[in-house]
Amino acid sequence: MKPLRVLLADDQTLVREAFAMLVESAPDMRVVGQAGTGREAVAVARGERPDLVVMDIRMPDLDGIEATRLIAADEELAGVRVLVLTTYDTDENIVEALRAGAAGFLVKDTRPAELLDAIRTVAAGEALLSPGPTARLIAQFLRGPSGPPTAGGPECLSERECEVLALVARGLTNTGIAEELGLSPLTAKTHVSRIMGKLGARDRAQLVIVAYESGLVTPGPSAP
Q1: What does residue 157 show for φ and ψ, rounded to 5 degrees?
Q2: Which of 20, 165, 210, 221 is in the most buried spot, having the most CB atoms within 10 Å?
Q3: What is this structure's pTM?
Q4: pLDDT tens digits for 196-211?
Q5: CATH topology of domain 144-213
Q6: Which InterPro entries match (predicted)?
Q7: What pLDDT is recorded for position 223?
Q8: What is d(CA 201, CA 218) in angstroms, rounded to the nearest whole number?
């Protein structure tokens, strides 16, 4: 298998170099570019077309949210996924990054092995949301109106599909959904794919936003 091609975008040189050393240490990955600003990240992404961009939110010239939006909107970069890194798991910009097209987020104090796993997970098409504060965080910033929903509502979904969507919003993987509902992982994956098609969602991260915007999932004690 070809190694995953990774672009690293962070305005701190030492952070980028540390991430580069970590990524290069993995036999299934290689760094194809680095960027110190959001605008540079977009330019390098267009030149290298990596499989995944590890994107810091706070950068000069063009922040990570706008850079993510430009990458997600570029038809020539279809398939390039963005994993956003943030210093704090309470950063409200995380929601805007997900709206912009990020496939997920991770806090910067994540352990090295977890970052590598996150890169693999997002590159494989799964959404990855930093565990713990995910549901509370997203619900907090979607309580009030903030523009039209990113995709369609769940009215067109079956009862089972609504159950699956709710579990996606809790951050469960296909395997987790399968275990929760007593399904096979393949069946869970099929449900998720059908839901994405019906709602016109780009990826699983967008499904999380849709679930909260529509009111299908609301903040509560059962949130992760």
Answers
A1: -90, 150
A2: 165
A3: 0.72
A4: 899 888 777 778 778 8
A5: Arc Repressor Mutant, subunit A (1.10.10)
A6: CheY-like_superfamily, NreC/VraR/RcsB-like_REC, Sig_transdc_resp-reg_C-effctor, Sig_transdc_resp-reg_receiver, Tscrpt_reg_LuxR_C, WalR-like
A7: 40
A8: 20
